[in-house]
């Protein structure tokens, strides 16, 4: 029985929509399933879509398991990419 098969993607041309990693030891997936949690989990105010790396998926899943009322988020993951751009262009 051969069913629908989607190959695992270990590289992304645009990179992860959160951390912008373009390659990973684990796969990239479509971010549609997790986009509703981006604002609370990563402190992102603009909409992001595309591929998401497994590391960021695991952060979303960890964030969902936190007790209600917890203020913890992983905004440093999305901010690190912006800081890297500023540092690169300032040289």
From TrEMBL:
Listed GO biological process terms: negative regulation of cell migration
GO terms for cellular component: Sin3-type complex
Listed InterPro entries: FAM60A (IPR026065)
UniProt xrefs under Pfam families: FAM60A
Top-level taxon in the UniProt lineage: Eukaryota
Name of the featured protein: Uncharacterized protein
Source organism of the structure: Xenopus laevis (African clawed frog)
């Amino acid at each position: 029985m051969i069913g629908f098969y989607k190959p695992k993607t270990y590289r992304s041309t645009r990179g992860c929509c959160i951390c912008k990693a373009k390659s990973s030891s684990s796969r990239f997936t479509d971010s549609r399933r997790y986009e509703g949690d981006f604002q609370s989990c990563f402190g992102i105010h603009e909409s992001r879509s595309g591929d998401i790396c497994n590391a960021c998926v695991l952060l979303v899943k960890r964030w969902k398991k936190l007790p209600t009322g917890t203020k913890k988020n992983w905004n440093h993951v999305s901010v690190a990419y912006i800081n890297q751009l500023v540092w690169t262009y300032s040289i």
